[in-house]
Structure formats: structure tokens, C-alpha cells
Write a structure and sequence with these properties.
Blueprint: H1 18-24, H2 39-50, H3 66-76, E1 96-97, E2 106-111, E3 114-123, E4 127-135, E5 138-145, E6 149-154, E7 175-176
Parallel strand pairs: 5-7
Antiparallel strand pairs: 1-6, 2-3, 2-6, 3-4, 4-5
Helix pairs in contact: 1-3, 2-3
């Protein structure tokens, strides 16, 4: 069973978009701080390269990997992967524009030194609750200020799940200030 934080256990009781199913399966994967890299994260690069999704210039999990996480999730969910997916802001061209961020959507954020990408699981008045990689050096769900969001993008669906809706959540937990 996936170790989902109590606040988000409701996700296990509904039919999820494939992006969220695939992302939740990776919850808790964390990088090796300092010398060395997590073989799982490096394996994502290799899996994508083998599938014809070029991942170049990624040799160590000290390199920001939120885009790599988004790419492996989309690949495993049967969704397209953007060109040069390691660059978080490239995800602003993914799928189609979402008028209102909803479960499973890709969210792109600005941050000092670049960008960040993750998946929408909910929101409170001021923050999105984002399931992403390289959040405190691991795959986690964290709160990121809505004001930092520059794009909400809907994955392409043949049959969009009924759960692709906005979810209002309690404003609990720390607000992330830099996901690198």
C-alpha cells in the first residue's frame, strides 16, 4: 500500500487520473544528498531514453529533477512528454490550457533560478497542493503559492475521469519557497 499522508488519503478512495495514479506510486522516492545518486531516479532517465524520450545532460540526482519526474509519470500514464522535459517551464506547452486547475493537471511555477513542475491534487485559498519530484529532495505533496503558478495544463484524455475537478483542501502544512 502507498504511504500517502493522512491529509491526502481521500485520493485512495476515488477513481484517479492516470497521472496521479502513476505519481502516487512513486511517493517517497528521494535523492541521495551529496555523493551518489538514487538508482530509481537515474533509472527514470534510462527508461525514458529507451522509450525514445531523449533525456540528455542528466547524470546525477543533484541536478533538479522535477521535470524528469513529470516525464516518467506522463510516460507511464500513456501521456505525451514535452520536448526537453528537464526544463520545468517547457511543461507550459503540455496538453491543453486548463481554465481551472483540476486533479491531475500539470502545474508550472516560477522559482529563484528557474521553474518547477508538478501535478495538481488540490488547493486552498492561497496555495496549490502539488504532487511532484524534487520537493525537499523527494517525491512529495507540498503547498506552493498560487501566485507563482504560470501555467495549468490538462493532459489529453480520450475519456476524462469524473475526478478531474478542482478540490478545495484545508490550508495545512508548510508552504514551499524553493523546490530545488
Amino acid at each position: 500500500m502507498i504511504d500517502v499522508p493522512q491529509t491526502y488519503r481521500w485520493l485512495l478512495a476515488i477513481t484517479l487520473p492516470r497521472t496521479i495514479e502513476c505519481a502516487l506510486a512513486l511517493l517517497g522516492v528521494q535523492e541521495v544528498v551529496g555523493k551518489g545518486s538514487n538508482r530509481t531516479i537515474i533509472g527514470w532517465r534510462d527508461e525514458l531514453n529507451a522509450a525514445g524520450v531523449p533525456i540528455t545532460g542528466y547524470a546525477d540526482d543533484d541536478i533538479p529533477w522535477c521535470g524528469l519526474f513529470a516525464a516518467i509519470v506522463c510516460h507511464r500514464a500513456g501521456k505525451p512528454v514535452v520536448k526537453a522535459p528537464l526544463w520545468a517551464r517547457n511543461w507550459a506547452s503540455f496538453g491543453s490550457k486548463a481554465d481551472k486547475a483540476s486533479l491531475g493537471d500539470v502545474l508550472v511555477f516560477v522559482r529563484n533560478g528557474g521553474g518547477h513542475v508538478g501535478f495538481y491534487v488540490g488547493e486552498d485559498a492561497t496555495c496549490y497542493h502539488v504532487l511532484g519530484g524534487n520537493q525537499s529532495n523527494r517525491v512529495s505533496i507540498t503547498r506552493i503559492e498560487k501566485a507563482r503558478c504560470i501555467a495549468a495544463r490538462r493532459p489529453p484524455y480520450t475519456n476524462q475521469p469524473a475526478s478531474v475537478l478542482p478540490f478545495r483542501l484545508a490550508a495545512t502544512g508548510t508552504v514551499s519557497s524553493n523546490e530545488a
